Amino acid sequence: MHTITASPASLLHRLAAIIYDVILLFSVLFVASIPVVVVFNITWGSPYYGYYRAGLFLLCFLYFGWFWVHGGQTLGMKSWGIRLRSNRGPSISWRQAMLRFVTAIASWGVFGMGFLWSLLREDRATWHDLISDSQLIRESRED
Questions:
Q1: Does pTM top 0.85 for this prediction?
Q2: Residue 17 in contact with residue 79, Cβ under 8 Å?
């Protein structure tokens, strides 16, 4: 019989999952940009460029938010056996996903301090874990 144990995800596992997800997300953003640039000719100097950037930001949020709310794992997280759990229940809400997404950006924006914070905590929580009242766990199977 298999038992699954859960422990807080390490910074190394988080970063590995992020690398996977960034590669996938850049592919999605590239494909989404083709009609915008080719068909509508929206480039840096266009008056609609701000809308284009806002659309890319929304697409990034939807990528992460959808996976977090529906099953707690992006494709990168699934590859590394990491799952996002709410501290309030089985899965996070869209509100928690938005808080997590925005705070994760801020965590990177201050030279990764929000991620490095996890090295100082026994529960390995980052700023976005704390703000969104959620946690990343690493699941492993034991025989």
A1: yes
A2: yes
| Residue ranges per structural domain of the chain | 3-142
pLDDT tens column, 63-104: 999 999 999 999 999 999 999 999 988 899 999 999 999 999
Q: Which residue has the tokens 């939807």?
A: 62
Q: 81, 77, 67: which is closest to 17 by C-alpha? A: 77
Torsion over CA: 41, 46, 51, 57 (sign): positive
Q: How far apart are CA 68 and CA 134, in angstroms?
A: 11
CA dist., res. 114 & res. 104, Å (int): 7
Mean pLDDT of 100-115: 97
**d(Cα 52, Cα 56) in Å, to the nearest integer?**
6
Alpha-helix residue ranges (DSSP H) falling in 1-143 = 11-34, 49-69, 75-79, 94-109, 113-116, 127-132
